[in-house]
Amino acid sequence: MTTASPRKGLLIKADPIAAQFRDEVKQALAQLSCRPKLVGILATTSAPSKSYAEFTRKQCEELGFDFVLKTTGAAASPELGEGDGVEEAIIEANEDESIHGIMVYFPIFGAQQDHYLQQVVSPFKDVEGLHFKFHYNLYHNIRFIEPKSLLGSVATPIAPTELETEEPPAGTVKSIIPCTPLAIVKSLEFTGVYNRILPYGDRAYGKTITVINRSEVVGRPLAALLANDGARVMSVDIDSIQEYTKRPRVASNPSSSESMTAQRYHPRHIVHPSNLTLHECLAISDVVISAVPSPTYKIKTEWLKDGCICVNVASDKNFEKDVRDKASIYIPAVGKVTIFMLLRNLLRLQQYQQV
Amino acid sequence: MTTASPRKGLLIKADPIAAQFRDEVKQALAQLSCRPKLVGILATTSAPSKSYAEFTRKQCEELGFDFVLKTTGAAASPELGEGDGVEEAIIEANEDESIHGIMVYFPIFGAQQDHYLQQVVSPFKDVEGLHFKFHYNLYHNIRFIEPKSLLGSVATPIAPTELETEEPPAGTVKSIIPCTPLAIVKSLEFTGVYNRILPYGDRAYGKTITVINRSEVVGRPLAALLANDGARVMSVDIDSIQEYTKRPRVASNPSSSESMTAQRYHPRHIVHPSNLTLHECLAISDVVISAVPSPTYKIKTEWLKDGCICVNVASDKNFEKDVRDKASIYIPAVGKVTIFMLLRNLLRLQQYQQV
């Protein structure tokens, strides 16, 4: 504790970050003639899912969205199994024209079968952005799409977006981004990690960011998003550390031809295995984001770079209590931002459905 | 051992089962003007993947298919990481019109990211049948599709097939079925589990089948296939036992309204939680199929129903050495059948591509 700063870093809770999106969503809603309707599908007796469903309802009602909670399986009747009827409920909501958005309270069956269910949700109603098409666009840095492409084959080659502007070109709309990674990006924008003086699509240039977790729901899409926005991202999981970047890599070896000759960065991130240890990644990271679902996993404060920004995304606390002795900013949770990303997606999808 | 039959059950290896498909594939190939070309994508240094790639090559060359092995990542160069470049290799093969089928040697990154990659393979070239669209059709008992639907939205509702004939109606083709579950079904047909006197689509009626494993790659699609074909399937995994059936359930409780009033079976299977134990499932099962990836997992021979048929799908042996003391037929492996299912799918997809 002898090296601790005399002054602690800022603690930023999600509320002030969420506030700007609450206003944005409220204003957009006020201009609509038809209230968007969200259906939540609850198929298990899981307490966190149940309380998240109640939280969704409360937020929707407060803001003026229609919300219907559809229970099925064990959530509807003790005689039914966990998850019973959930696929049928999704298909019914896909086909119901009065419904504009669908959210399913996962986990239900486990990662594999849940992933199957995520593909059953129509991409036109997928407020969580979990459909393969949206992941594909994200990984390929395809930011603007024709709404019709949500009907088309995902295997159609589309060029990554060369960005000049934040606004979609005529005839296109923004692709939907998965809620949790997007909430993290918005939190980083709020804390100044994204530099708005830089051109859109490259505003994280110059930042080194460690992301601990490489799941398909949070860590990997987040690493890709940040790298597509210009950051150098160290993606850490149990087995390996990878570097996500769209620029030529910083060469430890000057004979590396790539870094010497490449003049321009790739239109989307590429991934390299890294030789760095977690300790070494943390030592050079301006931002550390952790989403490890374990109550015992803790990032050592002493390993952090002085003045870095730390974001905890796990339901457990992945940072030590004294994290603000090193971090300039610490965000302990982003869930309250995530719900607004979901409602923003709902507003967009309602528009896309009209095309 | 006092209750063991004096005569052991039959040991049936995959070769005689594969033989009929070898002939079928050879004949179909002889009638084509253009040799189908399969590309195998190997992105890891995994020894089983490497030897499976060599096995694919050998089978293709022997039968007269063109086979190209594309190596990438650690399989191509020790300087590259496991899986590097695999998505790009898939996209290139999707776009290459000279290639009719793509197979990717999994596992690469682990279940979640591998599932993402399975969606990147164009369904028109997905010889393994791992694309979501094929799984969706399988789970919904949609056997015949318009080839164009492979381009369309997966969320479009399609009615399950009411079967009168094995032949697709005009303008439709058969949906692709994942190779391993299909190889198991074909092995059951070979051993007489499917009764060809019964109408197509209901030939497993009257059979009770236990399937141990409920992964999205083998166990769950297999349980659905068998139940859609009329069987009563007990689907067993670590956490739970479920019953897959398209008929009203056998009621233990005569007040169960469903079994008393339903006159006709569902067009596709439905799933119920089961109260039976594994022991009880095995005691009533005519067929036991096991795919548990563990060298220590063993099904107790004494629990098997006398005269049942046992199929081992795992790379480890899930049955005890004395399994044939109880089983009338034991199939220790189906891998040699699976490769022919893959080549049959290749021949079909080549046709679908021409539509």
Mind sketching the topology for me?
Two copies of one chain form a homodimer.
Chain A: E1 10-11, H1 14-30, E2 37-42, H2 47-63, E3 66-71, H3 86-95, E4 101-104, H4 111-120, H5 132-139, E5 144-145, E6 173-174, H6 179-190, E7 208-212, H7 219-228, E8 232-236, E9 241-245, H8 257-261, E10 270-273, H9 278-284, E11 287-290, E12 309-312, E13 329-331, H10 335-353
Helix pairs in contact in A: 1-10, 6-7, 6-10
Protein name (chains A, B): Methylenetetrahydrofolate dehydrogenase
Pfam family, one (chains A, B): THF_DHG_CYH
Organism (chains A, B): Hebeloma cylindrosporum
Write down the CATH topology of the domain at 180-250 and 267-336 in chain A. Answer: Rossmann fold
The neighbouring-strand order within the major sheet of chain A is 1-13-12-11-7-8-9-10
For the terminal residues of chain A, how far apart are their CA atoms?
59 Å
Q: Which CATH architecture of the domain at 180-250 and 267-336 in chain A would you pick?
A: 3-Layer(aba) Sandwich
The radius of gyration computed from the alpha-carbon positions of chain A, rounded to a whole number of angstroms, is 21 Å
Specify the CATH class of the domain at 180-250 and 267-336 in chain A.
Alpha Beta
Helix content of chain A: 25-40%
Mean pLDDT of chain A: 90
Describe the main β-sheet of chain A briefly: 8 strands, mixed
The H-and-E topology of chain A, N to C, reads as EHEHEHEHHEEHEHEEHEHEEEH
